[in-house]
Structure formats: C-alpha cells, structure tokens
C-alpha cells in the first residue's frame, strides 16, 4: 500500500511538473517572440513575394492551446494603375503559426481566418489581372529599401488553409465584359500550399445564391509558369430559394490569368438561362429554358499571342422554350438542338417554334465543328458548308451552299401561302428563288437570277454589292429590277385609321423642325439601280411602262427619269439631292406630273389628313438647308396640287369655314368632286393664286398666302353652300394657322359684304362649276382625269327663298341653310 501511495504521489508530482514546465516554456517562447519584429519580417516577406504594399496593424501572439497570431486592419494594395488603393482589406486576420518553421525563417500560417474582407477584382482589356501577384513588373507597387530587402531575404510566408467569412467581392472584367458584385458567405480553402487545394465557396446577391466546390492545381499567385494546371469545379445556383441550374468544369488550363492554353469540358443543366444572367451582369443572355449543355472547349491561339481563341471539339446543346424576340420580333422556339460528337463531325440543327403565331420547323447542317470554328474565327474568310430547311404554316425556305471563303455560292428558294410584311401588308401565293455568290472573301456579292412571284407582284432581276466599290471606299449597290406586275396599293399596307370625322392624326415626328436632317447618310453608300414596271396599280389607277433610274454617288442622289403612262395622264419628273461634303445640302425637282397618296404627302408636311385620294402634283421647286425649317424657308419655285373623285373631311372644312359651315356640313368624310390649288414660293411664303374645292353641297374658290415655316394663313375665300338645290355664299377671310384657322366675314373695299343667295329659277339653275379652271391652273396645263359626277344645280320651288325665310315646316336641309344664313348674320 505504501508503494502505491508513493507511485500516486510521483505521478501527480510529474504531471504538475510538466504543466509548470510547459507553461514556463510557453511564457519563455512568448517572451522570445518580438511581435514588432515578426510583423516587420512578415510585411517585408509578403511585399517581396507579391510585389504589393502590405498593411498590418499591431500583431499579437497567443500560445495556448497552440501558438497563434492575430492582426487587425490588414490590407494588400491594388496593382499599379488599378482602380482602388487596396485590392484586399480585412477587419481582422487570425492564424495558427508553425513553431518549428520559425526556426527555418518561415512564417507558416494554418487555419488563416479573415473577418469581413473587401475584395476588388479587375482585369484590363489587355488581360492584366490585379490578382496576378508579381514581385517585379508593371503591376508591382511595393518599393522596399535595402534594409527591408535584407530583412526579408531569408524569410518567407506560407499558408496551409484559409477560412473567410462575410466577404464583399466586386469585379470588373473588361476582357470578358462582365461586371458585378456578390457577398461570399464563406470561402474555405484547404491544402493551399499543396498540389491539389480544395475549394468551398458559398455566396449570394440580391437575386439568388450560389455555391462553388472542387479543386485545382497548385496555387501559386506569383507565377504563371504552369503546365497542365488541373481544374475540377462545380457551381450550383438558386433563385427565390429554388435550384435554377448547375455547371461543372473539368480539364486543364495552362495560364488561367490570361485565359490561355485551356482544354476543358463544360457540363451544365440550367432551368432558366436568364436567371444565371443575374449572377454575372453584362452577359445579356437570352431567355432560354431547360438548357442542357456539354462541350469540350480548347484554346486554339498561339502561346506567344495575346488573347485566346476558343474552339469546340464536341458539342451537345438541347433546350426547351427560347424567347428569340430580341433577335427577330415575333419569334419563339419550343426547343433547339445542336449536336456535333467530334471536331470532324457535321453540326446538326433541329428546332421548332412559332413566328408571329404560326408554326415553324428548322432542320439542317452547318459543316463540321472544325469548319464552323474556322469560319467564325476568320470572319468567314474560311468557307462554311450549310444546308438549312425551314418549313411550317407560313411556307418553306431552303438555303444550301457554302458561306465565306474566296467564292461562296448559296441557292435560296422560298414559298408561302401568305407572307406578312412589316407594314401590315401581305404577299399571297409567294414563290421566290435566287442565287447568291460572294467573292474576294466577302468583298463582292452578286444576287442573280432573282425571281419573285405572288398575287401582288411579279419581278425578276439581279443586284450587285461591292463592299468598297463606291467613291471613297463606301459600299456600291447596282443592278436592275424588272416587274411585270405590281400592286402598289396592296403593298403599301392598310391605310391609317381615321376618326369619326374622317381625319387621321398627323404622325409623331421623330425629329423637330430644327434638328439636322441625316443628309450625311447619302455619303455612306453609292447606288446605280434601274427599276421598270410593265403594269402597276397605284391609288386606284392603272399605270403602264413605269421606269426610274436611281443614281447615288458621293452624296449626290439623282432620280431621273421618273415616268409612267396612266389613264388620262402621263407621269414624268426628276429629283435631285446634293449632299456633297462641305456644302449646304440642296434639294430640287422638276415634276411634269406625279401622283402621290394624299395621306402620305400630308404626313410628310406634319398635317392631319384633310383629304383622301390620289394627289396629282406638278411644278418645279428648289431649296437648300440642313433642317426642315431651313428647307421650307428656302423654297423657290411653283407647285400645283389637284385631286378628283376623292373625299374631304367635313370637320376640317368646318374649321376652315367657321361654325355655321361646320353645322351644315357635318363632321364625317364628304365625297370630293374636285380640289386644286396653285402657288408660287419665295422668301418663306407661298403665294396661292388658285384655290378651288367642290363637293355635292359646297363650292369654295379663293386665293391668299401661307407661311412656309409659320404656316400662318391669310386666305380670301368665297364658299357657296348648296342644300336641296338652294344655297348661299359669303366671302370669308381666314387667318390663324393651318392647324388653327380663324375664319371671319370678309368685307370688300367699300366695307360691304358681297353676300349672295342661290335661289334657283327656270333661267338660271346651275351653280358656277369651278373645277375646269381650278384643275387647269393646278395642273399647269397638264392632262389628268376629270370628275365623274356633274356639278350641283340650284333649283326653284317651294323650298326657295320663301321657305328659307318663313316656312317653319321646311325640310331639315332647308332649315340648315336658314341656320347657315343666320350664323353668317344674313338672317335675323
């Protein structure tokens, strides 16, 4: 028993002795470590290894349970020329310190922890990345003195593992165009100084969260001398708490800093590609659902060349719905499949979807992956075979041949039962074909054997495009189009809808009157194009033997001739715009006869549509300027405009003639027997010498002036209103503007009003017909169609003057005339 007691006392005493010795050793060790000296050596070693300035606060050591250090206010400077002062900052750094390594002048840190670091990552367009830590060179910012270099010469810092929490990370990668920021909830790096460091990252931003796990080759931030640096990473993404996709990357990268020398396989499943776009802003990814991708990607660039060249060795892509509206309005795909098992295998494409609500199916091939890579990388300097077939409800399209190369040949055929056009028009029973040849590596294109047949048109011809064939190296388009039939009315699309008053609003002007017009666009293209039409339907008339020649060179546009044979008139004219560089643009035209849609002409003048039908225009005009205001103010010449058998807005006439006429005429469209005006333009004013209008109830004649810029009116009009064969006339003077006319009674030189009553009678029963004289003046003697209806007549009888004045049972039409006279102050 005594021996056992002695043994216990010996064991207890030994344990106490060990504790005392260990504690004393720890105190001795702590007293031997000078925090300031270790801090200085660490800073010097890090600056020597990284080439960056290092900032550390006060360093503290702890010896229990193991030797460790703690540093507040840690920072690593940005690269020279970087956007920030510091690339990395942290509130606190903690790590265990290898005791034996200190004996070998190594500061070996393990379990390194960074609290709330802020990390700024950037890469220039030339590939210079601030995470590339170089002891010397353009990125280095640390400039140690000789004493510091000597202190660091025998010391180095090594890190075993890293744990980071609550890190704010932002990046600006100008090489890829990606820019954004995330919060990294944690970053765990183990075996950092080993050959296969493990990575575990979790983070989030405002739209979702993600994780990244895997391993890479040895991490050596101070060197890019890597050969076959392995990478095996897997990322997973969530949005709204739900998984949206995962991507795996497996392969090798020789130089990850400059994205060169890679050979990796990408394998991913994405529920919504648009959701991934939110994690990496700037990519502008399309809206693709249920995407599956597996591809082998290699860098095809030379090792000594800047940048990388991604080439596909294999590809499998399969998707669900794709909203392709950002590329072609109205296009949606129900699915898309692209496959190429190997670099020499053909790229097959299969897809189906809808275009503007009609079903489509696409099948075809694009040559091999090698050919596709070469064509894309060379911008089609290398040839790419293709064969694509598009079919569906609208019709079918087949494209076959080769794109790119020294001489590309593509044959195109298309059919459609009904093909919608952008302006709302359609082509019915379309059958088209052409032959496209590209030569000199895309410098010259020929569109030959062009044939288009449909219900609305039938044409053939050819076009030639020389990319640098014009003056000064601009593109040159030349060719000839010959149409045997053209229904221009049908191809112009549906007319603008009018309100209940028969008026269509003036279109919104994209430019103001004082904005410079794009005359410089005429200097960006040269053209030599001849167009002929054997028979054409335009504004309800049939025209034959239409011909025009369009010539554009060095900013001078000439349209000469412009001719066609119509019913009762021959169209002829010429037009020129001189936008030669260094000169004020000039616009001139000589028109024998030209027919234009009234709605189109009024819209170009910025007016609400007052009349509907075909306007016949004649005259000669010249002007110059850079804006609409300058062009209008500089107009010189003479112009006549006329129309027969059209319509006119009753409300617009009422605004011009006053409230009484508005009440008698109504507000809807009125059949127009004839309309004409003739003017001479100079000094910003149009002197209108002839105005004539006639409907079945109204005749207007007159003259006056209109401001070309201000649109100020000074018109002297004599309206004659006929209702049920009886009517009245009174002279008016119209002031105000075209958009807001102000009519009032117009007194003669003697101060009296020349008021007239059209009472009818057996010897005088016809209202004076203004149409012959008006049309002759407005057409400047040229021929044209005549009104198809007879002039209105005045009639006598019970609805004559007595009825107007005293018959309370007169017809409603007669009462309207009485109201008109009362409104004009004729009757009390």
N- and C-termini, Cα separation: 149 Å
Radius of gyration: 43 Å
Major β-sheet profile:
43 strands, mixed
Give average pLDDT, whole number: 82
Find the count of extended strands (DSSP E, 2+ residues). Answer: 43
What class would the helix/strand composition place it in?
alpha+beta
**Beta fraction of the residues?**
over 45%
Low-pLDDT segments: 1-5, 7-32, 761-766, 796-814, 823-828
How many helices does DSSP assign?
Answer: 14
Proportion in helices: 10-25%
Shape: elongated
Summarize the structure.
With 828 residues, the protein is an alpha+beta fold. Helix content is 16%, strand content 49%. The chain has 14 helices and 43 strands.
Characterise the protein shown here:
With 828 residues, the protein is α+β, with helices and mostly antiparallel strands. Strand 10 and strand 11 form a beta hairpin. Mean pLDDT is 82; it is low at 1-5, 7-32, 761-766, 796-814 and 823-828.
Topology record:
Blueprint: H1 2-32, H2 35-50, E1 54-55, E2 59-62, E3 68-77, E4 86-97, H3 99-102, E5 106-115, E6 118-123, H4 146-152, E7 156-159, E8 162-173, E9 178-190, E10 198-204, E11 208-216, E12 229-239, E13 242-255, E14 260-272, H5 273-277, E15 287-299, E16 310-319, E17 322-323, E18 331-340, E19 346-355, E20 358-368, H6 369-377, E21 384-392, E22 395-403, E23 407-420, E24 426-439, E25 444-453, E26 457-466, E27 476-487, H7 488-491, E28 526-538, E29 541-553, E30 556-565, E31 570-578, E32 586-597, H8 598-604, E33 611-612, E34 614-624, H9 628-633, E35 636-649, H10 650-657, H11 659-665, E36 669-682, E37 685-695, E38 698-707, E39 713-723, E40 726-729, E41 732-736, E42 741-745, E43 756-758, H12 771-778, H13 801-806, H14 812-823
Parallel strand pairs: 5-7, 5-8, 6-8, 27-28
Antiparallel strand pairs: 1-3, 2-3, 3-4, 4-5, 4-6, 8-9, 9-10, 10-11, 11-12, 12-13, 13-14, 14-15, 15-16, 15-17, 16-18, 17-18, 18-19, 19-20, 20-21, 21-22, 22-23, 23-24, 24-25, 25-26, 26-27, 28-29, 29-30, 30-31, 31-32, 32-34, 33-35, 34-35, 35-36, 36-37, 37-38, 38-39, 39-40, 39-41, 40-43, 41-42
Helix pairs in contact: 2-4, 10-11, 11-14
């Amino acid at each position: 028993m005594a021996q056992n007691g002695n043994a216990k006392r010996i064991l207890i005493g030994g344990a106490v002795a060990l504790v005392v010795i260990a504690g004393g050793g720890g105190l001795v060790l702590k007293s031997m470590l000078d925090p300031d000296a270790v801090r200085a050596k660490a800073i010097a070693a890090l600056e020597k290894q990284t080439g960056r300035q290092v900032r550390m606060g006060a360093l503290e050591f702890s010896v229990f349970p193991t030797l460790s250090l703690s540093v507040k206010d840690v920072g690593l400077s940005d690269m020279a020329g970087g956007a920030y002062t510091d690339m990395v900052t942290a509130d606190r750094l903690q790590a265990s310190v290898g005791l034996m390594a200190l004996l070998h002048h190594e500061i070996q840190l393990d379990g390194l922890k960074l609290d709330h670091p802020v990390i700024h990552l950037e890469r220039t367009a030339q590939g210079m990345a601030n995470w590339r830590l170089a002891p010397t060179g353009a990125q280095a910012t640390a400039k140690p003195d000789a004493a510091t270099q000597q202190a660091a010469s025998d010391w180095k810092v090594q890190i075993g593992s890293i744990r980071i929490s609550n890190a704010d990370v932002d990046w600006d990668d100008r090489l890829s165009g990606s820019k954004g920021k995330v919060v990294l909830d944690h970053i765990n790096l183990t075996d950092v100084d080993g050959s296969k460091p493990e990575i575990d990252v979790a983070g989030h931003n405002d739209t979702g969260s993600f994780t990244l796990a895997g391993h890479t080759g040895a991490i050596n931030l101070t060197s890019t001398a890597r050969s076959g640096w392995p990478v095996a990473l897997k990322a997973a993404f969530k949005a709204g708490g739900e998984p949206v996709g995962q991507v795996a990357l497996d392969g090798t990268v020789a130089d990850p800093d400059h994205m060169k020398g890679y050979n990796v396989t990408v394998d991913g499943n994405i529920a919504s590609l648009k959701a991934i776009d939110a994690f990496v802003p700037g990519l502008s990814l399309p809206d693709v659902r249920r995407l599956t991708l597996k591809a082998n990607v290699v860098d095809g660039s030379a090792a000594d060349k800047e940048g990388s060249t991604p080439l596909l060795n294999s590809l499998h892509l399969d998707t669900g719905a794709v909203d392709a509206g950002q590329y072609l309005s109205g296009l949606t795909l129900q699915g898309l499949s692209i496959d190429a098992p190997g670099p020499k295998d053909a790229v097959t494409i299969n897809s189906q979807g809808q275009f503007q609500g009609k079903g489509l199916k696409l099948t075809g091939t694009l040559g091999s992956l090698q050919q596709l890579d070469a064509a894309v990388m060379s911008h089609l300097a290398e040839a790419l075979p293709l064969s694509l077939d598009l079919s569906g409800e609208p019709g079918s399209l087949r494209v076959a041949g080769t794109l790119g190369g020294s001489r590309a040949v593509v044959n195109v055929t298309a059919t459609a039962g009904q093909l919608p056009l952008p302006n709302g028009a359609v082509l019915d029973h379309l059958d088209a074909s052409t032959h496209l040849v590209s030569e000199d590596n895309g410098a010259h294109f020929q569109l030959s054997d062009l044939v288009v047949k449909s219900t609305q048109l039938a044409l053939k011809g050819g076009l030639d495009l020389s990319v640098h064939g014009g003056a000064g190296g601009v593109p040159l388009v030349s060719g000839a189009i010959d149409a045997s039939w053209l229904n221009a009315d049908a191809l112009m699309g549906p007319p603008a809808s009018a309100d209940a008053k028969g008026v269509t609003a003036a279109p919104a002007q994209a430019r103001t009157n004082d904005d410079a017009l794009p005359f410089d666009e005429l200097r960006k293209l040269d053209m030599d194009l001849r167009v002929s039409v054997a028979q054409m339907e335009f504004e309800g008339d049939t025209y034959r033997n239409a011909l025009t020649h369009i010539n554009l060179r060095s900013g001078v546009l000439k349209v000469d001739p412009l001719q066609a044979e119509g019913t009762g008139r021959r169209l002829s004219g010429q037009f020129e715009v001189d936008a030669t560089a260094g000169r004020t643009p000039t616009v001139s035209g000589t028109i024998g006869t030209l027919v234009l849609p009234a709605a189109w002409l009024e819209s170009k003048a910025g007016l609400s549509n007052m009349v509907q039908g075909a306007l016949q225009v004649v005259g000669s005009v010249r002007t110059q300027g850079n804006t609409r205001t300058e062009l209008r103010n500089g107009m010189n010449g003479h112009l006549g405009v006329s129309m027969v058998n059209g319509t006119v807005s009753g409300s617009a006439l009422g605004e011009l003639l006053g409230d009484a006429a508005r009440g008698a005429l109504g507000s809807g469209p009125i059949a127009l027997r004839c309309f004409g005006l003739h003017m001479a333009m100079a000094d910003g004013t149009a002197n209108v010498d002839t105005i004539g209008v006639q409907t079945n109830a109204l005749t207007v004649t007159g003259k006056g002036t209109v401001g070309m810029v201000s649109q100020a009116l000074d018109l002297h009009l004599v309206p004659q209103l006929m209702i049920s064969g009886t009517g009245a006339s009174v002279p008016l003077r119209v002031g105000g503007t075209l958009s807001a006319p102000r009519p009032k009674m117009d007194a003669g030189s003697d101060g009296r009003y020349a008021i007239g009553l059209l009472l009818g009678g057996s010897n005088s029963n016809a209202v004076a017909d203004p149409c012959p004289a008006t049309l002759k003046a407005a057409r400047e003697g040229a021929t044209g169609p005549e009104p198809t209806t007879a002039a209105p007549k005045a009639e006598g009888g019970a609805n004559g003057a007595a009825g107007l004045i005293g018959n309370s049972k007169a017809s409603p039409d007669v009462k309207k005339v009485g109201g008109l006279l009362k409104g004009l102050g004729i009757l009390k």
